[in-house]
Amino acid sequence: MDQIFDKLQAVSDRYDELNELISDPEVIADTQRFMKLSKEEGGLRETVETYHHYQDVTTALADDQEMLQEKLDDDMTEMVKGEIADLEKEKDELEQKLKILLIPKDPNDEKNIIMEIHGAAGGDEASLFAADLYNMYVKYAEMQGWQVEIIDESDTEVGGFKEIVLMITGDKVYSKLKYENGAHRVQRVPETESAGRVHTSTATVGVMPEEEDVDIDIDPADIRTDVYRSSGAGGQHINKTSSAVRMTHLPTGIVVAMQDERSQQQNRAKAMTVLRARVYDYYKQQEEDEYNAQRKSAVGTGDRSERIRTYNFPQNRVTDHRIGLTLNKLDKVLAGDLDEIIDALIISDQAEKLEHLNDAEV
Fold this sequence. Notes:
By secondary structure, the chain is of the alpha+beta class. Helices cover 50% and strands 20% of the residues. The chain is flat, with a radius of gyration of 26 Å.
């Protein structure tokens, strides 16, 4: 634990320094710097408070152990031994918590997300499953108090989606939904199946952090923008006005087309938001592929082509293949009850990172 204590003391020292800085009138006058330092201070607060509590517990434990060396009556001896047992248990729990708090945080965890859901293999049934996933995430977002906005959609005649793109905003959205990135498989009997055979279809989910403060520099010269007339419902306005926008990021070949809004300016803004996220995701995936070549993550954020979960309707079963979790409550999961799955994925991810932290300590 010596290296961990060194890290904790460094965190505590930085926390004290931040509290002094955000009390400085010059810093308070600089709104941008004040907000940045306040956010850093808030991010360290739980770790420092837990560390101080740990120090109090270890001090109390040392005092009780020293007291046992003195001449005590039987009742006092039993009482002190009881306190020692409780304090040792609390000390172990705090050590575990501190290790988890020291795990490097994903810098994107606080961010809103752009989610893309595509019907993949399975034709109409895949598009219907994409719609089921969309409804599942909307209901989960409502339970979390998040907001969902449809940025773009391409529906099918049967009521499904070829593709739907969402913006989900709220508290720590990426920290929970990043684990949904990947291929989702459904097994069920389609309504059009007269023989009652179970069909297998897939839909893919892409989860990207919203990049407002762009972590990667996109050169305007690398973007080709085309405008054209929108198609579909909307009457004369859509047919006569070149309001639709297509943006192409030339270095990566990523294309974003947007026509949902009535004005070209609104479509440009939405297209740029999605393009930023997709370009960031592209380069981030390259880094993860390089990392995974050296050490494969059990959970991670997953490759979008990797099958991560199966939804079996006949048996009301959902299985997350990354952690071997099976729940017989598919109906509740599709109604937005994703907490048990997401919590298990977070714990698994933390356990793996904790193992790496312990390896580094050794």
